[in-house]
């Protein structure tokens, strides 16, 4: 079976590669807007499914994996920042608090659909504004949901992660492995290069 990752995210590509399964990448062109009243969990599940469906429509015999991640503080959703000031304001709101990270995972194949949402909780330490501004100036937060990369420079802000670390990064690897094995794919762990 042909395996396709419906994402252009380098982090998701790295995680997929660790499974040791051959795959190709096709980034879908989908609307990532939030519908009125949509919860963070519902949003990421819907977006992941829509991304996978868009790619599966062009490759009907394939197994397509898609994911979507958002950061939430209560019902307030933090998407990718509009600019550096927006990133700074998001980080400022998250510091000294615990927030949720929701990742929707969709694995679609002919006649089968698996869609789930993985929720993790991340606690940030308090941090001075000057440090947050230096972090924003690094450029790392500017294309990340919630304005941070837990696996990157933002690790210095993270006090604790409860749940799936790979889900916080953008792809719940343990859950994905189990789904793919359920489809008869033999995972062969490959170390990161």
Description:
This protein is an alpha/beta fold and 193 residues long. It has one domain: Alpha-Beta Complex (Maf protein). The protein contains six helices and seven strands, in the order βαβαββαββαβαα. The protein has helices spanning 10-18, 40-56, 84-94, 129-137, 165-169, 173-182; strands spanning 3-5, 24-25, 63-73, 76-78, 98-109, 112-124, 158-162. Strands 1, 2, 3, 4, 5, 6 and 7 form a seven-stranded mixed sheet that branches. A hairpin with a 2-residue loop joins strand 5 (98-109) and strand 6 (112-124). Helix 3 (84-94) crosses helix 4 (129-137). The mean pLDDT is 93.
State the gist of this model.
32% of the residues lie in helices and 25% in strands. The chain has 193 residues and is α/β, with parallel strands linked by helices.
What is the secondary structure topology, with strand pairs?
Layout: E1 3-5, H1 10-18, E2 24-25, H2 40-56, E3 63-73, E4 76-78, H3 84-94, E5 98-109, E6 112-124, H4 129-137, E7 158-162, H5 165-169, H6 173-182
Parallel strand pairs: 1-2, 1-3
Antiparallel strand pairs: 3-4, 3-5, 5-6, 6-7
- Share of helical residues: 25-40%
Could you tell me the mean pLDDT?
93
Domain tally? 1
- Detail the poorly predicted runs: none
Number of strands: 7
CATH fold naming:
Maf protein
* Number of helices, counting only DSSP H or I runs of 4 residues or more: 6
Which CATH-level-2 architecture?
Answer: Alpha-Beta Complex
β-sheet strand percentage: 25-35%
**Structural class category:** alpha/beta
Instruction: Provide the succession of SSEs.
Output: EHEHEEHEEHEHH
Q: What is the CATH C-level name?
A: Alpha Beta
Q: What's the assembly state of these chains? A: single chain
Main β-sheet: number of strands, strand sense, barrel status? Answer: 7 strands, mixed
Which geometry do the CA atoms define?
globular
